[in-house]
Write a structure and sequence with these properties.
This protein is α/β, with parallel strands linked by helices. It folds into two domains: 2-209, Rossmann fold (3-Layer(aba) Sandwich); 302-444, 3-Layer(aba) Sandwich (Rossmann fold). It is built from 16 helices and 15 strands. The protein has helices at residues 2-11, 26-35, 47-54, 65-73, 109-121, 138-148, 188-198, 211-242, 246-253, 277-287, 293-303, 305-319, 347-357, 393-397, 413-419, 432-437, and strands spanning 17-20, 40-43, 77-80, 91-94, 126-130, 158-162, 181-185, 205-208, 328-332, 361-365, 371-372, 386-387, 401-404, 422-425, 441-444. An eight-stranded mixed sheet has the order 3-2-1-4-5-6-7-8, sandwiched between helices. Strands 10-9-13-14-15 form a five-stranded parallel sheet, covered by helices on one side. Helix 16 (432-437) links the parallel strand 14 and strand 15. Bound molecules: ligand SAJ. Ligand SAJ binds at residues 165-169, 221-222, 225, 229, 232, 263-264, 266, 269-271, 273-274, 336-337.
């Protein structure tokens, strides 16, 4: 039985593991297997990434270079752009991006390319696992027919499963080994083999009855976040209309020890997961004649938060008898969330673009981000790149308005509020003490 043969190889740590895509998901994953003495081959289309790994380097914040170096020097890890080596692997894990098209439909091109490479080189006796976040049905409707189309028979020649990635970039508490792993195969043998594999590196494996259940679980997780963030953003607008401090309300509600989970308003949602994943679910639901209204409503609220922030700033400047047009505006923090350098889908990009379209002179300070560029297809302002400014006294005091878009920990907000004229805080970055000691007027989301 193929299942028993593969589980034997896995349990003896003789299975050779291939990972396609060495990004924030694939690199931590392959290093975990290599550290457990599996022979691993990383497959990358980017030769620079492959070279950096083979030189013992790491471009992912959660993967220490010394771990890469250790695995490469012991021969347990090698990266390559030669996909023909997929033939050498007993296990192949696909960790490629699943972005959206401009039309907000799923962009399956990366999964299809990876599946095509596997078809070119697969051989009998392989376990193939998809980790990329995608709509329910991808593994059994898209990948399985690709492999069967090459004449390979499920359970006899190959096993196939889905296991969602749950990497949380920059999270010091939860790393690969202590994040429970959901595993669902397109067959029972596939589930069993995939479960045996992940049991080598993860404390808890949660088996489900199919790949679709595993695909849907991931989307449920992240849609849950997008919808609850949307509710927090709407509550912020309600509280502002009622003259109530939003953040005080959330903190009070969060004292409830059961049945509540705090989410917080912000300038919008960024990252490569939360803004995108729900659209994979709604797209698939629409294929089956169902319109998921919560997802659409959350998207509508979250995607217009940058406009709401610009309105707040515009009204505050107006109170100072200033127009946005011609005002100098300093954006504090442009990354999509605190203490990381990732700009993907960052709401700060929209806020800067909207302000520029209204004629503001916008500069930014973000200790993690050296340069901000704009997708000209989607900018209404001039779309020129911006470069990080040192947070000098002149930069702060010279601004007509400072907008805190990301609450990085290594910014002295007390100094900002003593030097600034007007501060719009979209992240509750300012403590009560800072607010009380401030000479600036402070407006909060
Ligand atoms: N955000 C809010 N209010 C909140 C929480 C987040 O406005 O209450 C914003 C953030 O500023 C950010 C966006 O939403 O712009 C997404 O934030 P996130 O905390 O969900 O962080 P991500 O994008 O890094 O999400 C990842 C996800 N991981 C994967 O999908 C693999 C998510 O499943 C995790 O739950 C999340 O990290 C986490 O827990 O931090």
């Amino acid at each position: 039985m193929l299942k028993d043969q593969l589980i034997g190889l896995i349990n003896d740590r003789n299975a050779r593991i291939g990972v396609i895509g060495l990004g924030y998901v694939g690199l931590p994953l392959i290093v975990e297997f290599a550290l457990k003495d599996f022979d691993c081959i990383g497959f990358e289309v980017d030769a620079k990434k492959a070279d950096e790994i083979n030189n013992g380097g790491s471009y992912i914040v959660d993967v220490p270079a010394e771990n890469v170096q250790k695995c490469v020097s012991t021969g347990k890890l090698a990266a390559t752009t030669d996909f023909s080596r997929l033939n050498e692997c007993d296990v192949i894990i696909i960790c490629v991006p699943t972005p959206l098209r401009k039309t907000k439909d799923p962009d399956m091109s990366y999964i299809l390319t990876a599946g095509g490479e596997i078809c070119n080189y697969m051989r009998p006796g392989q376990l193939i696992i998809l980790e990329s976040t995608t709509y329910p049905g991808t593994t059994d409707e898209v990948l399985q027919p690709m492999f069967e189309g090459k004449g390979f028979e499920l359970d006899r020649d190959f096993l196939l499963a889905f296991s969602p990635e749950r990497v949380d970039p920059g999270n010091p508490q939860f790393q690969t080994h202590n994040i429970p792993k959901v595993v669902g195969g397109v067959s029972d043998d596939s589930t069993a083999a995939a479960s045996a594999l992940y049991s080598q590196i993860v404390d808890t494996v949660h088996e489900v009855s199919s790949a679709r259940v595993a695909e849907a679980a991931k989307l449920w997780e992240n849609t849950f976040r997008a919808i609850n963030i949307g509710m927090a953003n709407e509550m912020a607008k309600v509280c502002n209309a009622l003259g109530i401090d939003t953040w005080e309300v959330v903190r009070a509600a969060a004292t409830k020890p059961f049945g509540f989970m705090p989410f917080f308003p912000g300038p919008g949602i960024g990252g490569h997961c939360i803004p995108l994943d729900p659209h994979y679910l709604s797209w698939k639901a629409r294929q089956h004649g169902f319109d998921s209204q919560f997802i659409s409503l959350a998207e509508q609220i979250n995607s217009t938060m940058p406009n709401y922030v610009v309105e707040l700033a515009s009204t505050a400047l107006n109170d100072d008898k200033k127009a946005v047009n011609g005002s100098k505006i300093l954006i504090l923090g442009v990354a999509y969330k605190k203490d990381i350098d990732d700009m993907r889908e960052s709401p700060a990009l929209s806020i800067i673009d909207l302000l520029r379209a209204d004629g503001a002179d916008v500069v930014y300070h973000d200790p993690f981000v050296a340069e901000v560029t704009f997708d000209h297809a989607y900018t209404i302002g001039d779309g020129e790149p911006l470069y990080n400014n040192d947070l000098t006294d002149e930069l702060i005091s010279g601004a007509d308005c400072v907008i805190i878009c990301t609450e990085h920990s290594n910014v002295d907000y007390d100094r900002v509020c003593r030097l600034a004229t007007l501060v719009v805080d979209t992240r509750n970055a300012l403590s009560n003490d800072v607010r009380e000691g401030a000479s600036a007027r402070i407006v909060r989301l």
